[in-house]
Amino acid sequence: MGSVEHKFKVLAFGMIAEKLKTSELELEGIPSTEVLKGYLFQQYPEIKDTKFSISVNRKQVKGDSPIPNEAEVALLPPFSGG
User: Fold this and answer.
1) d(CA 77, CA 14)
2) Which residues contact 43 (CB under 8 A, 6 or more apart)?
3) pTM for the structure as a whole
4) Which of 40, 47, 58, 77 has the most crowded CB, counting CB atoms within 10 A?
Protein backbone atom coordinates (compact mmCIF):
# COMPACT_ATOMS: atom_id res chain seq x y z
CA MET A 1 0.00 0.00 0.00
CA GLY A 2 1.97 3.01 -1.23
CA SER A 3 5.62 3.61 -0.52
CA VAL A 4 7.34 2.59 2.68
CA GLU A 5 8.25 5.55 4.88
CA HIS A 6 11.96 6.27 4.89
CA LYS A 7 12.58 6.92 8.59
CA PHE A 8 15.80 7.39 10.49
CA LYS A 9 17.16 8.80 13.72
CA VAL A 10 19.51 11.78 13.96
CA LEU A 11 21.71 12.06 17.05
CA ALA A 12 23.33 15.42 17.78
CA PHE A 13 26.34 15.94 20.03
CA GLY A 14 28.07 18.85 21.77
CA MET A 15 27.36 22.32 20.47
CA ILE A 16 25.21 20.92 17.66
CA ALA A 17 22.78 19.46 20.21
CA GLU A 18 22.83 22.77 22.11
CA LYS A 19 21.93 24.73 18.98
CA LEU A 20 19.22 22.24 17.95
CA LYS A 21 17.96 22.24 21.57
CA THR A 22 17.70 18.46 21.34
CA SER A 23 20.09 15.54 21.06
CA GLU A 24 17.77 13.36 19.00
CA LEU A 25 15.50 13.88 16.00
CA GLU A 26 13.29 11.42 14.15
CA LEU A 27 13.13 12.30 10.46
CA GLU A 28 11.66 10.68 7.38
CA GLY A 29 11.70 11.09 3.63
CA ILE A 30 15.26 12.47 3.44
CA PRO A 31 17.30 10.35 1.02
CA SER A 32 20.85 11.65 1.51
CA THR A 33 23.20 13.63 3.71
CA GLU A 34 23.18 16.72 1.44
CA VAL A 35 19.36 16.84 1.56
CA LEU A 36 19.58 16.37 5.34
CA LYS A 37 21.96 19.33 5.65
CA GLY A 38 19.63 21.51 3.58
CA TYR A 39 16.71 20.52 5.81
CA LEU A 40 18.66 21.18 9.02
CA PHE A 41 19.91 24.58 7.82
CA GLN A 42 16.35 25.54 6.94
CA GLN A 43 14.87 24.35 10.24
CA TYR A 44 17.80 25.42 12.43
CA PRO A 45 19.54 28.39 10.75
CA GLU A 46 21.76 28.85 13.81
CA ILE A 47 23.85 25.80 12.80
CA LYS A 48 24.66 27.11 9.29
CA ASP A 49 27.99 28.53 10.45
CA THR A 50 28.84 25.55 12.63
CA LYS A 51 31.29 22.99 11.31
CA PHE A 52 30.22 19.41 11.86
CA SER A 53 30.70 16.03 10.32
CA ILE A 54 28.07 13.41 9.66
CA SER A 55 28.23 9.71 10.31
CA VAL A 56 25.74 7.15 9.00
CA ASN A 57 25.48 3.95 11.01
CA ARG A 58 28.69 4.86 12.88
CA LYS A 59 30.76 5.41 9.72
CA GLN A 60 31.86 8.96 9.01
CA VAL A 61 30.83 10.10 5.53
CA LYS A 62 32.21 12.79 3.22
CA GLY A 63 30.21 14.47 0.48
CA ASP A 64 26.72 13.31 -0.36
CA SER A 65 25.88 9.84 0.97
CA PRO A 66 22.62 7.91 0.89
CA ILE A 67 20.78 7.49 4.18
CA PRO A 68 19.32 3.98 4.46
CA ASN A 69 15.93 3.34 6.04
CA GLU A 70 16.19 2.96 9.84
CA ALA A 71 19.74 4.40 9.81
CA GLU A 72 21.36 6.09 12.76
CA VAL A 73 22.81 9.43 11.64
CA ALA A 74 25.07 11.40 13.96
CA LEU A 75 25.98 15.09 13.77
CA LEU A 76 29.44 15.39 15.25
CA PRO A 77 31.05 18.69 16.25
CA PRO A 78 34.74 19.21 15.46
CA PHE A 79 36.98 17.22 17.76
CA SER A 80 39.51 19.09 19.90
CA GLY A 81 41.92 21.03 17.78
CA GLY A 82 39.15 21.70 15.22
Assistant:
1) 6
2) none
3) 0.88
4) 40
Kindly list the strands in the beta sheet with 72-76, ordered across the sheet, starting from the edge strand earlier in the chain. Answer: 24-28, 7-12, 72-76, 53-56, 59-61
What one-letter code names the amino acid at 2? Answer: G
| Residue burial 41-66, b: 16+ Cβ < 10 Å; e: rest | eeebeebeebebebbbeeeebeeebe
On the question of pLDDT at 1 being above 80, the answer is: no
Are 46 and 17 in contact by the 8 Å Cβ rule? The answer is no
Q: How far apart, in Å, are the Cα atoms of 79 and each of 43, 55, 65? A: 24, 14, 21
Q: Which domains does the chain have, with CATH numbers?
A: 7-61 (3.10.20.30)
Residue-wise pLDDT for 13-51, tens only, equals 999 999 999 999 999 999 999 999 999 999 999 999 999
